[in-house]
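Researcher: Last one for today. Full complex below.
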Amino acid sequence: MNNALPAARTTPISRFGWLLADAWTIARRDLQHWRQQPGAVIVNWFFPIMIALMFGLLFGGAIAMPDGASYFEFLMPGMFAMTMFFGLEATMIAVNTDAAKGITDRFRAMPMNAAAVLLGRCVADMISSAIGLLILMVAGVLLGWRWHGPLTAALAAVGLLLLLRFAILWIGIFLGLSAKGPESVASVQILIWPVSFLSNVFVDTVTMPALLGTIAQWNPLSSTATAIRQLFVNPGWRGQAWIIDNAQLMAVVWPLILIAIFLPLSVRGYRKLGR
Amino acid sequence: MRKHYAGGTKDAGLNGFDLTVRRGSVCGLLGPNGAGKTTAIRVLATLLELDSGQAQVAGFDVTTQARQVRENIGLVGQYAAIDEIMSGRQNLIMFGRLNHLSSREADKRADALLEQFDLAEAARLPVAKYSGGMRRRLDLAVSLIVSPPVLFVDEPTTGLDPVGRREVWAAIRSRVADGTTVLLTTQYLEEADQLADRISMLKAGRVIAEGTPDELKGALGGDWLDIVLPLDTDKSVVMRIVESVASGPIQADDEANRISVPVIERTRALVTVARALADAQIEPQDLSLRRPTLDEVFIHLTSTNEPEAQLEPTL
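Model: Here's the assembly. Have a good evening.
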C-alpha cells in the first residue's frame, strides 16, 4: 500500500544529491513567497535605499568630509554592510515562524536530511540578500556613488559583503530557533539599530566619545565597511588604530569567527528541538 | 509499541505510557490538556527523544531507526503545519518533491489529493484565505502524499466549527477505509466515539483506561437522566421512582433541586420515570437525557482505585 514510497536512498552520493535537491525545494519556497507577496519583498529590498536617502540628504549636509568628498561616496559602502547585517531580521523571523507554526516539525518528521532544512534557508536568504545588494548598488550609482578601483577589487568587496551576510545568517538561525515567540523577535529587531549605529557606517568613529569609538571600531560591521571602502576606493578615515589598518583581514576573520560560533549553535539548536 | 518518557518538569510528559495499536485500526487517545497526548505523538513521530523506555512504529524503533519510521508515517500536527503564503497546490507539490516524487508525479499527486479532499476549487488560492476546516483537510492531504501505513493525527478538530469538524471527520474516515493505521488524539469524547475502534484514556502521562467506545460508556453507566424538581417536591418519592432505573449511584444537587441518575437503557428509563412521576402527580421543571461529559468520565475513572484496570462493561 505504500507503493508510492520512493526507493531507499542508500549510497552516500545519492544521499548527498537528495540533500541538495531537498535544500533547493525548501529554498524555492521563499521564491514562491516573493511571487505571492511581492509587496513584502520589495519593501525589504528598498528599505535600505530609504535609509540611504534619509541620511545622505537629511544629515549628509551637516557631515564634513575630508577633501570635500561626497557624503554618498562614504555612506553607500556603510549602507551595503548595514544591509547585510539587517538580513538578520529576515532570517530570524523566517526560522522562528516555521518553528512556531509546526512547519519545521513537519520537515523533521519526513525522511530527509535535517541539514537540507538549514541549507535551504541559507540558499533562500543569500539569494534575497544578493538581489537586495544589487538593487542598493544601482541606487547608489544613481545617487552619485562610484567605485574607483579595478573591477576585481569591487568584486572582492561584494564577496566580503556576502561573507558577512553568510555569518549573520547563522546568528539569525540561532536566534530564530532560540526565540520564544514574536516578543523576543521584536526585541532583537529593536537592538539591531543601536548595533548598526555603533559602527562607522554613518560617521567616523573619532567623532564619538573615546570608549564608544573604540567599541564601534571593533564592531564587525565597521571592519567590513572599512574594507570595502578601501576596495571600492571610496573615502574613509584610515590609520587611526590597528583594527582599522587591518580592516580587510578583519572583514574575513570576523565573519569566520561568527560562523565558527553560531553555525554549531544553530545545528545544536535544531537538534535540541527534539529534547 | 511501548514507550516511556519521564520528561523534565513539564506536566505534559509521559509517565509509564504504554500502548499497543493493532495494524489497520484507529486508536483514539483521549485526555484533557496536559495529559501528554501531544507528547506521545511527538515521540512516535521521532520529533522528541525518549528519556527512557522504547517505542516501535510500523516495526521500527523510533530512536535507533528514526529514518525508517519517518518513511512509514504521516503526521497531522495540532496546528495545521502548512505554508500560509503559498497556495494549497504549491504546498502539496513542495511536500511531494520533499518526498522525492518527480516533478510530474508531484503535480499529478497534488491534483489527485486536491480532488479527493474537495479542495480543487481553492487549489490556487493562498492558504491564508482557507477556512479552518480547509486547512486541516489540506494538512491531512499533505501527510498522505505517499500513503503512509501509519498516520498520526493530533487534535484534528480543536478550534473548528461543527461544519469544519464534520468535513475533517469525513476525510479521516476515508483514510481508515483503505487500511491505514491511525493514532488520533482528541479532547472530545464524541470525536473519539465517531472515529476510533478503540479508545485509550490518558491522564498525567499514562493510560488509565482502554477499551472500545461502547465498553467505556458501559463502564460509566451510560447516559445521565437529569430531573429538575419544583421546590416543594417530596424528594423521597422521586428517589424511590428513579432507583428502579439507576445503573449506579444517584447524585442529588439540592441547590439546583436536581437529581442526576445514571441510566443504561436511555429511552426506556426516560419513559419509565416520566410515567411514574405523572402517576405520583409530580411535574418536573425539566426532564432530560444527556451523555456523560469528559469531566464525568475522568472523575469516574480517577475515583477507582485501580487506575490501569481494563474496563469491562458493567452490565
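Confidence is low (pLDDT under 50) at residues 1-7 of chain A. The interface with chain B takes residues 1-6, 8-9, 18, 21-22, 25-26, 28-29, 32-33, 36-37, 101-103, 105-112, 273-275 of chain A (CB under 8 Å).
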